[in-house]
Automatic annotation (TrEMBL):
Family of the protein in this entry: Belongs to the binding-protein-dependent transport system permease family.
Residue spans crossing the bilayer: 9-30, 104-123, 130-157, 169-187, 230-255, 275-301
A GO CC term attached to the entry: plasma membrane
Segments forming domain ABC transmembrane type-1: 96-294
Name the record gives this protein: ABC transporter permease
Database matches in Gene3D superfamilies: MetI-like (1.10.3720.10)
GO BP: any one term: transmembrane transport
Database matches in PANTHER family: DIPEPTIDE TRANSPORT SYSTEM PERMEASE PROTEIN DPPB-RELATED, DIPEPTIDE-TRANSPORT INTEGRAL MEMBRANE PROTEIN ABC TRANSPORTER DPPB-RELATED
One protein family per Pfam: BPD_transp_1_N
Keyword Membrane assigned: yes
PROSITE patterns: ABC_TM1
Residue runs in coiled coils: none
Localisation per UniProt entry: Cell membrane
Length: 308
């Protein structure tokens, strides 16, 4: 198991370097002057102050040198400092709980609803199966920001059932609508994979043997079909957790949730590169960690993977 773990960790290192460099390159090559953006559009900064700020944040250095300095700080746990003077690690610590609650709420919704719909579609062939396939296709085709605004108008403004912005209502009320919108990004895949896996399980020889021995339909479904069919679904759900945390940027912006995504949402127009890069690196690390855990879980479930 040790060599397998080491291989997976070593494979994650170039992915981390590549993704963080792309983020860094995308942020620091944006048009506009971050120093002027820091002061505001109607303020004039003296050349001496502007030069001092550029030297402080290494903006006077070539891009490769800036990235190297960022990596050096990253090795000692320093995610940089915002152009406002606030450490990026402090911003992440204050915003992370909101993103974690949003991602966790969306993940639970996606897991429960996706698995339930997939099982129903596989077992109840006909109208129920067609309805699930139609609904998942519709969910894949409608942009999520359209769903976000529709849910805000219907459930928040017209019906008044749920808050449409902020976290003042607390968990879970403040996170139901944004969690639902975020969950819809992965729910169709979970439902369809569950449906396919359960259909394959129902056609397996050992299931037919269990039925021949006199086991009831419910017992066969729970003991011999669903349990085995959920192994690939569990892998998808594990990877989806990383995607959900990374996909909170626009959702938090639409619902005005002060999480990591909202910090990026507000930092980009202000050209606050350290915040965008630092939070982006944090999300990449979370995504890689989740993927590593899923790989290790697969290695435990199937020893042949560790030998591959």
């Amino acid at each position: 198991m040790g060599p397998y773990v080491l291989r997976r960790v070593l494979m994650a290192i170039p992915v981390l370097l590549g993704t963080t460099f792309v983020i860094y390159l995308a942020v620091y090559t944006l048009p506009g002057d971050p120093i002027q953006a820091l002061a505001g559009p109607n303020q004039v900064i003296s050349p001496s102050v502007a030069q001092a700020l550029r030297e402080r944040f290494h903006l006077d250095q070539p891009l490769v040198v800036q990235y190297g300095l960022y990596l050096r700080g990253l090795l000692v746990g320093d995610l940089g400092t915002s152009f406002t003077g606030r450490p990026v690690a402090e911003i992440i610590a204050a915003s992370w709980p909101v993103t974690a609650q949003l991602g966790g709420t969306a993940w639970i919704m996606m897991a429960v609803a996706g698995v339930a719909l997939g099982v129903v579609a596989a077992v109840r062939r006909g109208a129920a199966d067609a309805a699930v396939l139609f609904g998942t296709t519709l969910a894949l085709g409608v942009p999520f920001f359209v769903v976000a605004y529709v849910t805000q108008i219907v459930f928040g403004v017209q019906l008044g059932w749920l808050p449409v912005s902020g976290v003042e209502a607390g968990w879970p009320l403040a996170y139901i609508l944004p969690g639902l919108v975020l969950a819809l990004s992965g729910l169709p895949q979970v439902a369809r994979l569950t449906r396919t896996s359960v259909l394959d399980g129902l056609a397996a020889d050992h299931v037919e043997t269990a039925v021949a021995k006199g086991l009831t339909g419910a017992a066969v479904l729970l003991r011999h079909v669903v349990r085995n069919s959920l192994i690939p679904v569990a892998s998808l759900l594990g990877v989806s957790l990383g995607y959900l945390l990374g996909g909170t940027v626009l959702v938090e912006g639409i619902f005005n949730l002060p999480g990591l995504g909202y910090q990026i949402y507000t930092a980009i127009p202000q050209h606050d590169g350290p915040v965008v890069v630092g939070i982006g690196t944090m999300l990449v690390l979370v995504f890689l960690s989740v993927n590593l855990l899923v790989d290790l879980l697969y290695g435990v479930l199937d020893p042949r993977i560790r030998l591959g």
